[in-house]
Amino acid sequence: MCLIDLNKLVSGGMLTMDQNIVITPTMTGQIMAKYYIAYETMKLFTQISGTEILIQILALISKCHEFAEMRLRVNDKKTLNLFNKNTKRATIRFPLNGKIKTWDMKVNCIIQAVLGNLDILDHSLLSESFTIMRNGARIAKCLTEYLGTRRVNCYTALLSTIILCKCFHAKLWENSPYLSKQLSGIGSVTSNQLVNAGKTTFQKILESNPRDIELVT
């Protein structure tokens, strides 16, 4: 069994092994170990062409093995489908085709809901969102480092991954008007109030009269 797994890692480019079974990790293998990433996930990374844009990188990360234990419960579907498509309220940035049917669509939708500052009122989904965002940030960091070592032209994919990595860190989209959430003591409610008052950049907040901020919040 051990040799079978070792051969899998060798064939996947994670290790090199000579006739004396002297094992040496490749750069890809070192990155995999550094971030505790599953072999299946690293195999997924090797399929990247290098031209992927943000929406495609997000979809790829959502399919990673680290999320495979996520289950799409019947009770989840209504909330997730409303996040995906709804004419009466804010929805996710990149709507998914059709209804939410698989665990990777669920992961994708939850990531977008968090980054889009959408209220997750379902306690089960809210609890899962913490795990998803934590794992997503780790995977995005790993993918960023992996793409940085590839010799083929993958600048578009690397840029998209770096942007998404920053989004995971801030828990907001890179173009989000709710950037005030990054300030200490400001949550979703206060951030929404500031956005409604037109305070959508740090410069506008900085230039605001303190009394105006107090009135808004």
TrEMBL record:
One GO term of the biological process aspect: meiotic cell cycle
Domain of life, per lineage: Eukaryota
UniProt-listed InterPro entries: Meiotic_Crossover_Helicase, Sec63-dom
Domain SEC63 positions: 25-217
Transmembrane segments: none
Family annotation (Pfam families): Sec63 (PF02889)
Gene Ontology molecular function: any one: hydrolase activity
Name of protein: SEC63 domain-containing protein
Organism annotation: Rhamnusium bicolor
